[in-house]
Amino acid sequence: ERAADDAPVTALRYGSFATASDRWGAGVETIDGALGLDATGQGVQSLALALDAGGAPHVVYLKGGGAARRAFHRARGAQGWSAPTQLDDGVSYANNQKAWHPNLAFDPTGRLLVAWQRGSFNTDNDGTIFTRVRAANGSWGAPVNV
After folding, report:
1. Is the per-residue pLDDT at 44 higher than 70?
2. What is the band of 145 on the pLDDT scale with cuts at 50, 70, 90?
3. Could you tell me which of 6, 1, 80, 76 has the C-alpha nearest to residue 33?
4. What is d(CA 19, CA 91) in angstroms, rounded to the nearest whole number?
5. CB atoms closer than 10 angstroms to residue 75
6. pTM for the structure as a whole
7. Widest CA span of the chain, in angstroms?
């Protein structure tokens, strides 16, 4: 959600769509209502969503403005959306570096692999890709610089 074109992104919303009936589900849920994400412009991927083997949605997304932008994960269960997990805790950022381009995938054993980039902007050539794995039991490993 943003107030206008090129305005900061303030909230992340979730709605479901039934392809069988070609209809949107009833209601929209707020995943995170306090993003504070600066206006990122064209071509910036700020979230990714995937369903686990049980059909539960998982989202990785960016939160925070300017150099404070970081990567987070949440999943939707029977009680609603989980508390946010900061994926890049323990990763150091310098100067104008921030998180970019979060992504996620599940492997056949149910592990969740997330990835994001740490870097400055466009031609600064300081981008580094990090990954983090969540085991099928829900425990997170440490961030890894790949």
Report:
1. no
2. very high
3. 1
4. 40
5. 17
6. 0.90
7. 50
Q: Which residue has the tokens 């990785």?
A: 60
Confidence at residue 39, expressed as pLDDT on a 0 to 100 scale: 67
SS3 (DSSP) at 41? coil
Residue 45 tokens, joined: 């991927």
- Token duo for residue 12: 């992340």
Residue reference for tokens 């919303």: 13
Predicted local confidence at residue 1, as pLDDT: 82
Percentage of residues in the chain with pLDDT exceeding 70?
Answer: 95
**Cα 141 to the chain's mean position, in Å?**
17
Contacts of 47 (CB under 8 A, 6+ apart): 12, 59, 60, 61, 62, 102
Encode 60-110 in three state secondary structure: EEEECCHHHCEEEEEEEECCEECCCEECCCCCCCCCCCEEEEEEEEECCCC
